[in-house]
Each structure stands twice: as structure tokens, then as C-alpha cells.
Design goal:
The structure is a single chain. With 193 residues, this protein is an alpha/beta fold. It has a single domain, classed as CoaB-like (Rossmann fold). Helices cover 33% and strands 25% of the residues. The protein contains 5 helices and 9 strands. A 5-stranded mixed sheet has the order 3-6-7-8-9, with helices on both faces. Helix 2 runs parallel beside helix 3. It starts with a helix and ends in a 5-residue tail after the last helix.
């Protein structure tokens, strides 16, 4: 979804920076790309970019890990360790700090959920939008095999800061990107915005 949004943003004339983890899809060569490996690196790079440049819009499409190992050690051999207990800690929520670092940026948050009804997606998504002080939120059910991760298709429910929602039915991610960026444009151009 992030790649589709980057291509469509460039097609519309935007200067684009993509902060990404491991990916298998091509990104537009016109985009500035920053490769990271961990959720902490993504958090740090996002904050650094927002502090050093004047961004108008942040499209937070990544699904960074919610948890990370408490300590990172060298490789552990299975020769003497047939059982392993792993302690995890919650990672920093990147979208929760974007508006703190850059209050005037237009934030589009993404929320991946599994098995929620459309009504539950809206209720959950609106609560998450408020928590992050986002301007728009796109939520979807990534438990479906016909959309989302690893698919060329997606289906999202867009929620705005007033709690209004609309569904962009299943279609290619490029089509979703067009409609999503239209919604960003519409919301940016509203009086009082």
C-alpha cells in the first residue's frame, strides 16, 4: 500500500520520502528512500525526518512490530538450549508521536485489524485516530486472504476526525491510493483546515 501511495503521490507532483523496512516491491525511483530494519529505527528516522524537514502530509502505512525482544544477544545455539523463553516489551507507537513532533502535518494513520465487522473497524479505527491525533485513518481486515499484505488488492474504511466513514471497496492498491489521496486533498482543502 505504501508503494502504491508513493507512486500516486509522485504522479500528482509531490516530493516523496519513503521510510521502509524489508520490501519485495519496487519503489518509485523519484522517491527518496530510507531503508531501516527495526521498529526503533523506523521510529527514530521518522522523528528525525519530521524535525529536519517541513512535511505537509505523513502517510503512515507501515505495520511495525508491536513488540520487540527486551534484550538482543548473540546467536543462541540449540545444542545446549532445547527450550527458550523470550521476554518482549512494547515498542514505541510511531503514529502517537508524529503530531507531537510536527503538529501541523496532515497525518493519515493506517490500522490493520483481523476479524472485525465493518462497524467494529469504524469504532476501533476512530478511537485509534483520536489517540494519535490523526486527520484520517484507513483501516482494514488483514486476516482476509484476498486483500492486504501480499496482495495487489485492498479494501479500506476511511475515517475522518469527525468520525465520518466511508468504505473503499476491494480494488487494486493503485486504485485505493488514488481514492485515498483524493480524500486527503478534500480534507486538506476544507475551510478551517
Amino acid at each position: 500500500m505504501g508503494a502504491a501511495l508513493a507512486f500516486e503521490s509522485i504522479r500528482r507532483g509531490a516530493a516523496v520520502t519513503v521510510i521502509h523496512g524489508p520490501i519485495t516491491i519496487a519503489l518509485p525511483h523519484q522517491a527518496r528512500t530510507i531503508s531501516i530494519h527495526t521498529t526503533k529505527e523506523m521510529y527514530d528516522e521518522t522523528v528525525k525526518q519530521l524535525q529536519s524537514s517541513n512535511y505537509d502530509v505523513v502517510l503512515a502505512t507501515a505495520a511495525p512490530s508491536d513488540y520487540a525482544p527486551k534484550t538482543v544477544e548473540k546467536k543462541i545455539s540449540t545444542d545446549n538450549n532445547r527450550k527458550l523463553t523470550l521476554e518482549l516489551h512494547a515498542t514505541q507507537k510511531i503514529i502517537d508521536d508524529i503530531k507531537k513532533v510536527s503538529p501541523n502535518v496532515f497525518l493519515v494513520a493506517f490500522r490493520a485489524q483481523v476479524g472485525l465487522s465493518r462497524e467494529e473497524l469504524v469504532t476501533d479505527g476512530y478511537a485509534r485516530l483520536k489517540q494519535a491525533s490523526a486527520n484520517l485513518l484507513a483501516t482494514n481486515d488483514v486476516g482476509r486472504t484476498d486483500i492486504g499484505f501480499g496482495s495487489d488488492y485492498n479494501e479500506v474504511t476511511l475515517i475522518n476526525a469527525k468520525g465520518e466513514s466511508r468504505i473503499i471497496e476491494r480494488r487494486t492498491k493503485r486504485e485505493i491510493a488514488k481514492q485515498l489521496l483524493d480524500a486527503v486533498s478534500d480534507n486538506l482543502n476544507r475551510p478551517g483546515k
